[in-house]
């Protein structure tokens, strides 16, 4: 047993969490992020947390890291110059794309189409053709391939994507072109579509592989620098990186397959939420992660986050497995404004960010933000982060006065309350996307809230959704780092298998799944995870014959070992009816197979708080006043670190800790669970 180190890099802060695997005791640190080289901020945080814990750097046994390097490379346009090799006749695959334009009616008139990550002048086509069944129709023209590769080398490409038609069925031509590229373009990293996404649909396979090439050099440099820096600092522990689906991958593998890291940061939060929800005894819940700029929401069913097949970053959507996270531009720094044309209050998506920040921070910001509204209403104390941050209440009131004046409201508090109501409604819309729109009733779920700003709004979101209890885990501001430290290694294999049920039998389908499971298990075993400790989960994409889309269906081991096709058909029908409220009589059809193999969960002890009397008065900091339900009302401020298991904090109340602040509304109470989580419920609800 030793120490597990979780590291999450955000745009403003780098969160570091050190967990003693034997006792569950944790130490946390926040340091400023260093965008020019994130590894510097990571090392600063590691040194700080080890110093605070009183341990040497070499006592760290595992370093688990959630990173935004791949995401930022796409958002900021800092990726590699990518060369793309296509089959003759498919040179414009990225330009043609899909006939979808975001926005409402006539959106196509004003929509600026984003530039593909591989430019047309850096895209070449070579003769050679594979059929959909994997047979070779036209042999590969190797002489032409060499010439085109040399031309790309002359254009100064920094990464190469090879995406040939139907290569998911037979990768022979792609592998041969890769061999030629190694000779003609030595040192240039190569991504094969048959490796990155061995599934049908030419555009999705190509754009995903191009995205992999685009971020690969940046991710590779970062991972190498961090690994080298960790070793130089005395940490001999292996470095693992969090995937978008919430699993861990060794650093070297992450550098080869960086497209799987695009949602690494949000995935850490959902994984950490699942860890604490299990301790509190909840398996079905919505997650609500509110930061300074945006809010991420997700749905967890049966203790497992729902996994999606698409990942969207900015204007780019790729086919990569990730936690199904939805994002809305609502955060603590979201700016409130009143357009002259409509005179209707709006909040976000524009944000004050960290620079200049909310007016209350006293760092030059003057625009009214959600944080300023919380300050005006008395929900945020004057001192944050243990006294490290002082809030300027008068600056917040001055900023909020502009909203009150523009709307003709009688008081600044009324304007601030309006800002809070609107941002809460914005976040409610995001929660409905992952619950109601997916066929789930939010009243059947708890609500797990975290992030620096989340616990301030959690009680109100619980009231809007009917999701009880509202769970605020310990250290909610660093929960993503908890997720990094408490998840497990994972690998995945996939293939396309377009077969109608009438042409398929259980044995053939079971054998195909076993082959995929064996491949993923072998890769995980090579990373030091014994096969006997591995578990496999199965997902099959199905549709009715003739449909233009498919639905992923989770399949358990009992179904795989039993009457597979009958069980699969029943699962598909149930999912189709849940999503669309009807069934078709068409024959069912298998499209894609996917097997995910996971290692064991880490053996990290759960902490248990000492038992209290139910009276939280020992944690009382002071009395205060807050604006709630249209009037000023007395409230109490509590220090969370002094609360004990079973203590009940009745609202109105504010619970403060180093990295976040929790608001308990009037008519509600927060009970301290032995695991340390706060469970907020209406006073009139039993249980």
From TrEMBL:
> Key word Repeat present in the record?
no
Q: What's an example GO cellular component term for this entry?
A: cytosol
Residue intervals of the Hydantoinase/oxoprolinase N-terminal domain: 4-184
What species was this sequence derived from?
A: Actinomadura viridis
Q: What is its EC number?
A: 3.5.2.14
GO biological process entries: glutathione metabolic process
Q: Does the keyword Acetylation apply?
A: no
Keyword set, alphabetical order: Hydrolase
Read off the InterPro entries from this record: ACX-like_C, ATPase_NBD, Hydant_A_N, Hydantoinase_A, Oxoprolinase-like
User: Which GO molecular function entries does the Swiss-Prot or TrEMBL record give?
Assistant: 5-oxoprolinase (ATP-hydrolyzing) activity; N-methylhydantoinase (ATP-hydrolyzing) activity
One family from Pfam that matches here is Hydantoinase_A
- Where does the Acetophenone carboxylase-like C-terminal domain start and stop, copy by copy? 507-669
Gene3D superfamilies per record: 3.30.420.40
Q: What is the lineage of its organism?
A: Bacteria, Bacillati, Actinomycetota, Actinomycetes, Streptosporangiales
Fetch the SUPFAM superfamilies from UniProt: Actin-like ATPase domain
The Hydantoinase A/oxoprolinase domain sits at 205-485
The entry's protein name is N-methylhydantoinase A
Q: What class of enzyme is it?
A: hydrolase
PANTHER family (alphabetical): 5-OXOPROLINASE RELATED (PTHR11365), HYPOTHETICAL 5-OXOPROLINASE (EUROFUNG)-RELATED (PTHR11365:SF23)
